[in-house]
Recover the amino acids of this structure.
């Protein structure tokens, strides 16, 4: 039996705020307390606010350039530019995770410099304050190819098994050599979004009943979820890949057709 | 507060089995009963078994061809062929959802012919038997670009709000014109996988506490999650798109270079 709830009262978060204290106070106000095996899932937005990762709206393009490693795909639809990029954390998503919703007027929020480190620090503080072995996930909202809408995923994690390693199993397609690895961290982040929502000002959720997932703070973080571009069948958008191929093919075609042995062939 | 649990005792499912009866018996054995607002999340595998969507292993390639609308991307790595395809349901995933894990020896399982209809039939049966307004999701396990591991998603749904419509909100990137639409059905399927798991023979999970998501059986199903290929920035794999571009560019290049006005230019 899994229980998931979102303690209320964590509304405004400002630079320098102690997130561990905010979470523990919210639990105390509701007469609950963290137990070993609990997983605290925190919307990355309030971590960015607590860490002061804010910029003036006017510096948004500069921040976007700083956060972006490479543009994966872009499309301009009637002035509305969508840019899917890989950010410095290896996360592929829209606008490098720069957030202008529910931020102070005229400002944008950048993702934590190191979400896994932020998660570790929060988990360590919660464990020290309570003596309970709790896990922490930082969640963000991402769109995805092929399916409409968005789901929350884990961009930071500490003290939890990010993957359910099922070595030896066959995968959903029955290929015996491939290993099925459910991404528990992403499934936990998605579950937490069901109680947090986007409009209810409930930026923290607690999952109880997944003790088997919780472990030491030295477990791999959410960085381990990001797949290297060279291993990805969709490392570049369809239009971008077609354009690169067209340019290379065109060069090759003109070179061959106008090459010295052209007459000989024709 | 959300509660999620997986009733035990639903082990072997065979062609013709009454899934509604199996779910209700499992609940009864544990002294629980379905309540209005509950969402029953069923692993699509047992729906396929109940519907007799089985084929001899030897017909696997033929079944794959039947289920596949188009190949999105393919890669052969040391004899292990990965094929990402769009199936007849508009779902993009590996091997068209054909499943050879935990199936009868020498057989493979195909996805339900119409997962939304299967979900509607199960929801209608559960509502008729209990008098309670319950929702139903059929879940399957899918990999995704850019992130390792898999998560469970909804391939069928009935009696639930598939999306949380947040019109007017700005999205995670702060673009005011874009609408954030959390895919509740996928987040519920992911949450359910946390209690079902892949190895524990618990193919059914019940989510309690999401009453706001449950509604009439005429609500749109999971088919509404599939994005049309022409609207997708990743409708084709990077290598496939590059190859198409290269071929088109090569043809254009040779045509121009060896065209009649070639001498005039050079």
């Amino acid at each position: 039996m899994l229980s998931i709830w979102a303690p209320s009262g964590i509304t405004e978060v400002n630079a320098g705020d102690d997130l561990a204290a905010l979470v523990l106070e919210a639990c105390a106000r509701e007469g609950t307390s963290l137990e070993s095996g609990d997983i605290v899932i925190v919307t990355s937005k309030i971590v960015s606010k607590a860490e002061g990762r804010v910029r003036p709206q006017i510096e948004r393009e500069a921040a976007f350039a700083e956060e972006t490693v490479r543009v994966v795909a872009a499309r301009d639809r009637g002035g509305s530019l969508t840019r899917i990029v890989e950010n410095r954390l290896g996360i592929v998503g829209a606008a490098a995770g720069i957030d202008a919703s529910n931020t102070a007027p005229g400002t944008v929020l950048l993702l934590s410099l190191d979400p896994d480190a932020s998660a570790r620090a929060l988990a360590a503080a919660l464990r020290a304050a309570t003596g309970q072995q709790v896990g922490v996930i930082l969640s963000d909202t991402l769109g995805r190819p092929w399916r409409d809408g968005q789901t929350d995923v884990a961009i930071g994690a500490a003290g939890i098994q990010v993957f359910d390693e099922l070595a030896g199993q066959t995968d959903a397609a029955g290929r015996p050599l491939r290993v099925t690895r459910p991404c528990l961290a992403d499934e936990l982040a998605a579950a937490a979004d069901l109680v947090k929502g986007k409009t209810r000002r409930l930026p923290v959720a607690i999952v109880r009943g997944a003790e088997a997932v919780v472990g030491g703070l030295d477990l791999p973080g959410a960085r381990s979820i990001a797949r290297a571009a060279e291993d990805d069948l969709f490392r570049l958008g369809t239009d971008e890949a077609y354009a690169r191929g067209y340019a290379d093919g065109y060069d090759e075609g003109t070179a061959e057709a106008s090459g010295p042995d052209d007459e000989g062939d024709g």
Remarks:
- DSSP finds seven helices and ten strands in chain B.
